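It would be a great kindness if you could assist me with a short task in structural biology. A protein sequence and the structure tokens that stand for its backbone fold form the material at issue. I should value your view on which stretches of the chain appear to form regular backbone elements. The record follows directly beneath this note.
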Amino acid sequence: MQKYVLWLVDYIKKLESKIAFYPTVFSVIGIVFAFIMYYAENNGISGYILKYFPALVINNTDTALNILTTFIAGLISIMVFSFSMVMILLSQASSNFSPRLLPGLISNRRHQKILGIYIASLLYCIFTLISIEPTGDSYQLPGFSVLFAIIFMITCLGAFIYFIHSMSQEIQVHNIMERIYADAKYRLEKLLNTEKENIDNLSFPDSDNWELITSNRSGFLQTINFDIISKIAQECDNRFEVVAIKGNFIHLDQVLYKVEKPLDKEQQELIEDAFLFSRDEIISDNYILAFKQLTEVAVKAMSPGINDPGTAIIAIDYLTELFSLRSSKSDESYVTKDNKALIKIHTVSFENLMYYCNSALRTYVKHDVIMVLKILDMFYYLINNVTYSAYQKIISTQIEVLLNDAKSSINNQNDLEVIKTKADAILNN
């Protein structure tokens, strides 16, 4: 049963990130509501409303037909324009910033819901128009249903105005980076709140001789259900070491985890299903992606084709905040129960994360004095705010590497002297 629940949760999570998910849901709602109104019309609701509230009912067949056909044509035009704007947004974000930003933009629920409102209203108008059937020389007029069509069209116009406003804000790079930062910050703070304060006092045995379990699937390791693994660990007095790093692409037959004692087939299948794979990367599941995306935005901004140092500076500011949060987290993570470590989790270390981001940045900014000084500002802030002293040495190493790259790329001695003075001040602080 647990296996199917996990599969269903994973499947729904994948569906929800697709651009067509909410439009499909809203479309079904629109069709269902159209049939509900058709049933109500057959039971005389329009006649009842006309008798007591005549102002609420459209009582002219030509007027109703004109209203519905106009609404259908107008909604199709609005939908075409809206979808075109979405495609333009995705194209600009991919070419100007980074293709990695596309999943986050596509999964914007507000835009999906607005598109869903359009489609639901369109389908409702179509089915209402079809329900106007001739009876002899006259037509059976669903006057009350037409009133709802008018209400839905007004709603669509309001949604369209909001859509234009939202898209104009969404395309701005600082708003994109703000969203990336906010998602990563939320994820990091959640991890920090659940991290054990006594992590340094936990003991975990050497796992060199443990059994290796490999993956039978490939894809991005999106998330891991540690509740299932820890439950099995408690039931059979076992321990696990998760070797695969969440967010990385896992290849077929790559080692997923180590286990202290052998597992039976049922237990192994349950644990395999606890590893959820995806072809997409999501920040809410893996904060490392935010570091990658912000770094790529800064690198793209400093490329000769874009040459936008202002955007790169903003990206470095957000990276500084995220590195500061990450520096409060230990490189070692455990899942514990009753002060006993049941699962050891491999994560991207602070050193590797710092190297990944700064090696990419150095390649594109080492020739720019302002950008080099900005990165040194980041190092100065971090080296004075890290929680673990070991991280200070890592930051010092990155300062020295950046200084060496700047010396090889900047010819102006005055600029080099300014950079060297600032770097020495940070290292000797």
User: Anything to note?
Assistant: Residues 173-365 form a domain with the Aldehyde Oxidoreductase; domain 3 fold (CATH 3.90.1170.30). Residues 316 and 390 are 22 Å apart (CA to CA).
